[in-house]
Write a structure and sequence with these properties.
389 residues, alpha+beta, Aspartate Aminotransferase, domain 1, 2 domains, 10-stranded antiparallel β-sheet, 6-stranded antiparallel β-sheet, globular
Length: 389
């Protein structure tokens, strides 16, 4: 039976661009990536929301000044109401008004870091990726760059959390690998086992770009090593440029042994939490760092095209994570400079709460390979870049 909290969460999700987050027994509803604050927070039947000064007078004693959020504002204030004081319909009206106060705020309308109202329009209308990109380029006064950008677009695959049970050989991130008898768990030259990153059933991948049509692709890396409670990799940093024996990408076929036990050299917290994944096609844009434009053009592209486009596609795909197979990378710091043999991004692994990974405060791992190995999925040269958030 649905609870009051369930009803409130469901209503918030009907408001365009809403992001719901839960921490233990506390909930919050924000818009888009949440960087512009929330419009609703609730815990234990107490709802905190934005209320205009006019509505505060109308509702009178039903609403109280928030006991948790007290900062000074102009034209509105944080107020709280207990569950059961208002009927659901009236509570939903207050929630909707709080949402409108947020998206009509001056901070929300600041287009220097992306036109949030335009992003919401793209989400509400569920624009096709090509149309969405075209509209953002025009808004950013970069329409003359359309042909160049279109030539550099890459369709790839985004990995989305799945509720299905993982079968032997099925696509998953983290957990333990399902290996063929002929394949050993790869190790670093020091003897320590590499962390299992994930396995992907190639028959499930919509866009393989030359990869084999069957088999399971396995990813291992020393960049999964870490100290307990530490977000940064615990690796021999002096080897970072060469990465000899750091990474392994290989292909295996049935029959497979399910959940092969991790070698004892791998500490328990270096075994990532298991998440089943499905695939969807996704259009990826060339990173701003790769464009040879003037500084002002790159800046407009980055803030008014690139990030807004990613935000729309992430919301419509239902995942904030950016696990990508065969697409453009989403750099967090600078353009990666892998060794000359490993020039193609095969896989991008993002920080993921469900996997309990946070690569240096929300960073990514980028698996670069020699493109000559793609037809057979045999890679003699693998370089993994690490960029922290």
């Amino acid at each position: 039976m649905a609870t009051k909290s369930d009803e409130v969460v469901e209503y918030c999700r009907s408001l365009t661009g809403t992001k719901i987050e839960r921490w233990q027994s506390s909930w919050s509803a924000s818009v888009l990536n949440g960087s512009l604050d929330s419009y609703l927070k609730f815990k234990d039947g107490c709802y905190h929301l934005r209320v205009s000064d006019a509505d505060a007078d109308i509702y009178g004693p039903v609403l109280q000044n928030s006991s948790a959020y007290r900062w000074t504002t102009t034209g509105w204030k944080w107020m709280e109401v207990q569950a059961g004081v208002l009927a659901s319909e009236r509570l939903f009206v207050l929630i909707r008004d709080s949402y409108q106060l947020l998206i009509s705020s001056k901070k929300f309308k600041d287009i220097r870091f992306g036109d949030k109202i335009e992003i919401l329009r793209h989400i509400e209308q569920q624009l096709e990726p090509e149309r969405s990109l075209s509209d953002f380029l025009e808004k950013a006064d970069l329409k003359d760059k359309t042909s160049e950008i279109n030539e550099k677009l890459l369709w790839g695959n985004i990995l989305i959390h799945s509720s299905r049970e993982v079968t032997t050989g099925g696509s998953k991130l983290g957990g333990l690998p399902d290996l063929p008898a002929s394949m050993n768990w790869p190790s670093h030259p020091s003897g320590k086992a590499l962390t299992f990153i994930g396995q992907l059933d190639l028959s499930e991948v919509p866009l393989r770009h030359g990869l084999p049509g069957d088999g399971v692709l396995y990813f291992f890396s020393a960049l999964g090593w870490r100290e307990e409670e530490d977000a940064d990799p615990d690796i021999p940093w002096e080897e970072f440029d060469t990465q000899k024996g750091w990474n392994s990408i290989s292909i295996g076929h049935q029959p497979l042994a399910a959940n092969v036990k991790a070698p004892p050299s791998l500490r328990e917290h270096e075994i990532l939490k298991c998440v089943a994944v499905d695939f969807e096609k996704i259009l990826t844009l060339p990173p701003p760092e790769t464009l040879e434009w003037n500084e002002h053009e790159v800046d407009r592209y980055q803030w008014q095209v690139y990030f807004p486009f990613i935000e729309v596609q992430s919301y419509l795909s239902g995942t904030p994570n950016r696990h990508i197979l065969l697409g453009h990378p989403n750099y967090i710091q600078n353009k990666s400079e892998p060794p000359s043999a490993s020039t193609t991004l095969l896989f991008q692994l993002a920080s993921d709460e469900a996997m309990e990974t946070c690569f240096g405060d929300g960073g990514n791992l980028y698996f670069f390979v020699n493109p000559k190995g793609i037809p057979t999925a045999e890679f003699d040269s693998v370089y993994v870049d690490y960029q922290c958030g």
